[in-house]
Amino acid sequence: MKGSRYNILVKNRDRNTICYNTLLDSFCILSNPDAELLKTDVEKLAEKSPKMYEALCEAGYIVEDDCDELALAAQEYDEAINDPSTFYLTLLPSLDCNLRCWYCFEKHVVGSHLTPAVSDSIFAFVKEKLADENIKQLQVELFGGEPLLYFETELYPLLKKIKDAAVEAEKYVSFFFVTNAVCINEGNIPLFEELNASFQISIDGSKERHDKVKYIPESGEGTFDSMLKTVKALTERLDSVYINLRINYDDETLPKMPELIEQLGDIDRNKIGVHLERVWQTGGSPFDNEELQAIIHQWMANGFKVSYMNMGRRSFSCKASAKNQAVISWNGAVYKCSGRDFTDSHQEGQLMQDGTIKWDDEKLKKRLDIVTWDNPMCRECKFLPLCWGPCCQKQLETPGDFERYCQKRNMEMGIAEFVKYKFNNAYINPANYIERI
Ligand code: SF4
Ligand code: SF4
């Protein structure tokens, strides 16, 4: 027997050791001597602590000598990107936006919106997917531009039709809106309820900062107060809503974060997840960013689940690598990647009137042939089950330059601090909090 290659051992001061296994996405706590033996000599661990040894074998922290865990991971990746049971559909109902955040990478198309003809073709596309007996669920993400600009008049009628068709076909459908929340109001909240919607809503730090970035261009009016009111209203009025609060931070916003935690007050923690994302143009911060680590712990100590980097347990790097996936824009242009501007050079297909997609086969093949983790750096990495390597888009743009996009390299904390954060996040209970190093 041998220790799993995906064990990461981190000392919790002199008390004990946390073992995080990234493949299992689970933790155990060991005495320091047992942890040392798990690393160096599992046979001796079997003699000295037989019960612990047995439990570790049963859970997968210790595996058979001939167990090839990398091959198991490879199989998981392969099955996930070829999974016939799920279709990932991203819709871009408009590439216009009601705000003009300085860091936005997109080229806005003023006045763009779904025409009845494109809307009909999208519905025909969905109907065909729902008729496919292999497909059991349809995950619809609404992105843009701002996807809610023409919500009541154009988007909601299409989504309601999709939902009704899915119910009729006895298939699962979900709707996830990536929005600045400006268009959500008391009047249309019931429409989101009908769709069982979940959301990603962006915040740029405290009110002062947010209002400087997210303001209505015509009036200069900041959107922080209305955004906060909307987030609270959604959690109060929608029973099963989930809102991912994406907090775009830079070095100036971090000190103001406690204000935001306070402003969220007693909001239902079960309906909110907090995701911290550095504004990418402000990179280059220290590897050991004490302030960021303190803020993450402050969020968790206040009962919020926090995600940091793109390092949650999953089975592929990005859904753009999946076979059953498409991004369809307001004008019928089709893409795979939603992280680049939606211009001709990035287009990979066209939605036809009858609801089929005419793919650019060469472009599509080039992307889908990339196995994102299959390079010397990622093969050896303990984080592989959380990351799966630089995404296919990055590898298309800079082939072979894996290191530049390595998440470990861009993380603003060390491995020990990261494991402690993951542990606290998994077992959030302010009373049982493991201290920071
Ligand atoms: S940039 Fe990469 S991670 Fe982002 S959507 Fe495109 S393929 Fe996915
Ligand atoms: S990109 Fe970096 S963190 Fe991700 S799997 Fe590869 S080596 Fe690990």
List the helices and strands and how they pair.
Elements (H helix, E strand, L loop, with lengths): L1 E2 L3 E6 L3 E6 L4 E5 L1 H9 L1 H7 L1 H10 L2 E2 L5 H13 L4 E7 L23 H16 L5 E6 L8 H18 L3 E8 L9 H6 L3 E6 L3 H7 L10 H14 L5 E7 L7 H8 L7 E7 L11 H12 L3 E4 L16 E5 L3 E3 L13 E3 L5 E3 L1 H8 L7 H4 L4 H4 L4 H6 L9 H4 L4 H12 L11
Parallel strand pairs: 6-7, 6-13, 7-8, 8-9, 9-10, 10-11, 11-12
Antiparallel strand pairs: 1-5, 2-3, 3-4, 13-14, 14-15, 15-16
The structure holds iron/sulfur cluster (2 copies).
One iron/sulfur cluster binds next to helix 15.
Offer a concise description of the structure.
It contains 17 helices and 16 strands. It is of the alpha/beta class and 437 residues long.
**Total count of strands:** 16
Estimate percent helicity: 25-40%
At the fold tier of CATH, the topology name of the largest domain is TIM Barrel
Number of helices: 17
The Cα radius of gyration reads 23 Å
Explain what this protein looks like in three dimensions.
The chain has two domains: 1-67, no CATH class; 81-359, TIM Barrel. The chain has 17 helices and 16 strands. It has helices spanning 32-40, 42-48, 50-59, 69-81, 116-131, 151-168, 189-194, 207-213, 224-237, 257-264, 290-301, 361-368, 376-379, 384-387, 392-397, 407-410, 415-426, and strands spanning 2-3, 7-12, 16-21, 26-30, 62-63, 86-92, 137-142, 172-179, 198-203, 243-249, 272-278, 305-308, 325-329, 333-335, 349-351, 357-359. Strand 7, helix 6 (151-168) and strand 8 (172-179) form a beta-alpha-beta unit. Helix 5 runs parallel beside helix 6 and helix 11 (290-301) packs parallel to helix 17. It is globular. The model has no long low-confidence stretch (mean pLDDT 93). The protein binds iron/sulfur cluster (2 copies).
